[in-house]
Design goal:
Keywords: Coiled coil, Membrane, Transmembrane, Transmembrane helix. The protein is built from eleven helices and eleven strands. By secondary structure, the protein is of the alpha+beta class.
């Protein structure tokens, strides 16, 4: 076997090892061999398989020839190992090129974005818009030509431009020879459709009627017509004041007077409870005489009552009362004299409802403890009540002028004066 055949065989046998990297030990030996200078012949610089011991140096040259094939094989393996990195570099080159191309593409995109981000003046912006519009028009034209079965030839385009330049009077519209038919109105068409679907019922002919005219009113009936109209008007009117309840009339009159007074003085909300009391009352007894009592609004917080006892034309007795609201104490009080001293005793409002209003005092045991007001349809009733004993003699002498007395109470019943 020649040397070339041996090398070829060795290459074929080790073809699967060409892609393998050499071991670290072999790689270090090969690199050491390559790095060794040419003139050096020291024993340390030689590779391990080429180191010659002092004993072997004395051997004859024929012994070295026996190992020549092994040396050749080792050199081939070394050459293969040296060539393998070249194959690895060639395979890795495209892979390394891909990231570099991606980097270039990213840089190009970044530069384009930066160029777009730069402010444009009016002329550059207008030129850019025109270029974009032109490019878009070309794309649309190209897409239309691709979709069209036969693109327009240059001659056809020239003819179209000539027709466009000609005036409108010279244009001739070519239409097929079709006979024009007048369309029936929409209503007629609908009637025809309805007639084809459903048979129309026959309408009865319109009958001409002659109505008689409304007769005019007879002038001789004018008084009767006027009397009837007046009668209907009287029936439609509300009831007259004289036909209403007398008590209702009196209450309306009293309310009218109270409203007039309330306009001058705005009544406090706590005093509005006694607004019905405003007005003039009287009580007639044959023995004592005529008792007249008049309540009026002094100011928003005070209602005052003045009572007079008359016998004939002589005034024989007079007293004053008042109901007021104390803003400091936030309470409603009643002041009423109970003896000849005419000093008013003060009572505080304790409870009230629609039937009665009660004032009480618990400070002085010798005075009546309750005073009760009871509104009625004709007026009101006042009761002075002593529940802790009997009325004093001085109190009885004073209260007998205008009240009906007992040992524990005094009562007077007043009617609203018409």
């Amino acid at each position: 076997m020649s040397r070339e055949d041996y090398i070829s065989k060795l290459f074929r046998e080790n073809a699967d090892k060409l892609d393998e990297q050499p071991s670290q030990d072999l790689w270090s030996r090969i690199s050491g061999e390559l790095d060794r200078p040419e003139g050096s012949s020291t024993q340390e610089d030689l590779p391990r398989f080429e180191q010659i011991s002092p004993k072997s140096a004395a051997r004859p040259r024929g012994a070295m020839l026996k190992f020549a094939p092994y040396f050749a094989a080792a050199s081939i393996v070394a050459a293969i190992l040296l060539a393998s990195p070249l194959f690895f570099e060639q395979e890795a080159a495209p892979k390394m090129a891909e990231p570099s191309e991606r980097g270039l593409l990213a840089e190009a995109i970044k530069e384009e974005a930066e160029s777009e981000a730069l402010p444009l003046n009016a002329k550059e912006q207008e030129a850019q818009f025109e270029a974009q519009e032109k490019e878009q028009a070309e794309k649309i034209l190209q897409a239309a030509q691709e979709k069209a079965p036969q693109p327009l030839a240059e001659e056809d385009l020239n003819e179209l431009t000539k027709l466009k330049e000609q005036p409108t009077d010279e244009l001739v519209v070519l239409t097929p020879d079709v006979e024009l038919q007048e369309e029936a109105p929409l209503l007629v068409q609908e009637e025809a459709v309805i007639a084809s679907d459903y048979p129309l019922p026959k309408m009865s002919p319109v009958v001409q009627r002659n109505y008689a005219k409304t007769p005019a009113a007879d002038p001789s009936l004018a008084p009767q017509i006027e009397a009837l109209q007046e009668q209907n008007r009287v029936k439609a009117e509300p009831k007259q004041l004289e036909k209403e309840n007398k008590r209702g009339l009196r209450r309306k009159q009293a309310k009218g007077r109270s409203r007039k007074k309330a306009q001058k003085h705005k009544i406090h909300p706590r005093i509005q409870l006694f607004e019905w009391l405003l007005g003039e009352y009287e009580d007639q007894t044959p023995e004592a005489g005529t008792s007249i009592e008049r309540w009026r609004l002094l100011n928003p917080n005070v209602i005052e009552g003045i009572a007079v006892l008359k016998k004939g034309d002589d005034k024989i007795f007079e007293e004053r009362m008042r109901i007021f609201y104390d803003e400091g104490l936030r309470q409603v009080f009643l002041d009423l004299p109970l003896d000849d001293s005419r000093l008013p005793a003060r009572y505080m409002l304790s409870q009230f409802d629609t039937e009665r209003i009660i004032f009480e005092q618990n400070d002085k045991a010798e005075l009546p403890n309750k005073i009760i007001l009871q509104p009625s349809l004709q007026g009101y009733t006042l009761i002075i009540l002593q529940e802790r004993g009997f009325l004093k003699s001085g109190q009885q002498q004073y209260l007998q002028h205008r009240n009906r007395l007992s040992n524990v109470r005094a009562i007077r019943d007043l009617k609203l004066k018409e």
